[in-house]
Amino acid sequence: MTHPLASRPLATVRRLASLLVALAVLSSPAAARKIPVLIDVGVGPAVWTGLGDLDAERTLHPGVVLRVDAVVTRKQLKKKWVRKSIPQRYRGETLLRHLPDLHVRQGWMMGAPDAFVLSPNVRGASWAPLSLKLLHHARPAHTSLNIQPRITLLGAEGAGGPTASLAHVGLAANPDVHWKVAKRVWVGGGWESSIGLPIGTVSGASSVRMFHVGRAYGMLHLRIPVKIDI
């Protein structure tokens, strides 16, 4: 018998989006004047590579991605009172006027994992608490090149395979592109390469050489308008 949520994936995504929006609003402190933003909830499938030390029989490992951002649109950034309300740590006021949009991650957003490994013999979760956009364009598609520290916690325990518990800590490059397909709906994807050091142990292995971890992903974005203090 098919689970009712499985037959209504879009409804499930909308419920998840509503929950995350509620968390964003509740986690924001009270302010005299809140900024209109779009809470961007992105979810989709992922394929991981570079985990051969954990499962030598598989080159590709399935997973999912989940990303939540608060987006201040260009229309809002043109308003002086909006620019004045945005904390200086994000961008200088002069730059804000020319940005296609501004993506902001609040405290709870930065602390939540944004990618997961769900392979038969390997499980893991990954965080990118900070991100720097080196490239950022809105037309013809929304494209960006992000540089960010990446922490990935991994565990493996398979029949006849190694038992492992380790972390991969590195610096990641993440080109990302997405297109608007409806008023509040975007689709896209990207690739991320994280170069770093593995920290931990793998049973039966004298050394761990997992210096590069890669991930391709596709994503469906739903954008929900709210007013919050950032």
Outline the structure in words:
This protein has 230 residues and is α+β, with helices and mostly antiparallel strands. It has a single domain (9-228), classed as Porin. 16% of the residues lie in helices and 52% in strands. It is built from five helices and ten strands; from the N terminus they run αββαααβαβββββββ. The protein has helices spanning 9-26, 74-77, 80-85, 93-96, 107-111, and strands at residues 35-49, 61-73, 101-104, 115-118, 122-127, 132-137, 142-157, 163-182, 185-202, 212-228. The chain has an eight-stranded antiparallel barrel with strand order 1-2-4-5-7-8-9-10. The longest helix has 18 residues, at 9-26. It is elongated and about 60 Å long. It starts with 8 loop residues before the first helix and ends with a strand.
Descriptive labels:
alpha+beta, Porin, single chain, eight-stranded antiparallel β-barrel
Rg over CA atoms, rounded to whole Å, is: 19 Å
Helix count, DSSP H or I runs of 4 or more residues? 5
CATH architecture: Beta Barrel
Low-confidence stretches: 1-7, 24-32
Summarize this entry quickly.
By secondary structure, this protein is of the alpha+beta class. It has helices at about 10-25, 75, 80-85, 95, 105-110; strands spanning about 35-50, 60-75, 100-105, 115-120, 120-125, 130-135, 140-155, 165-180, 185-200, 210-230.
